[in-house]
Design goal:
115 residues
């Protein structure tokens, strides 16, 4: 998807946001990172785990992404993207809800070669 195309998704706590999160990722992130994380900076499990928690990942995305237009995503879209990255990289189970109310509970260890 071309840069500049956006997605507007209303975040609704309590409902499954898996499809919405992928839509936001495709619209706002995939043009650099691709859906597999193979274009631009590789967003593999190792990189995502380096943040240590959903809250830290959210904070980084909020300040720095998208690279060509930082601070242009809504908090809702950033939560959706955070959830998408954690679920799609196998860091949290499918269906895990990632939002303001759950972020501090979602922590994870840095990646190690034995994982």
């Amino acid at each position: 998807m071309a840069a500049g195309l956006g997605a507007f998704v209303m975040f609704m706590p309590g409902r499954d946001d898996t499809a919405d999160s992928e839509l936001v990722y495709q619209a706002r992130c995939a043009y650099c990172h691709d859906l597999d994380g193979t274009i631009g900076v590789k967003l593999d499990e190792r990189v995502i785990r380096s943040y240590g928690s959903a809250r830290r990942l959210f904070n980084y995305l909020r300040i720095a992404m998208p690279y060509d237009a930082p601070r242009t995503m809504t908090d809702s879209d950033i939560w959706l993207t955070t959830g998408y990255l954690l679920r799609s990289r196998g860091i949290v189970p499918p269906g895990t809800r990632v939002h303001e109310g759950t972020a501090d509970e979602i922590t994870f260890q840095p990646w190690s070669p034995g994982d």
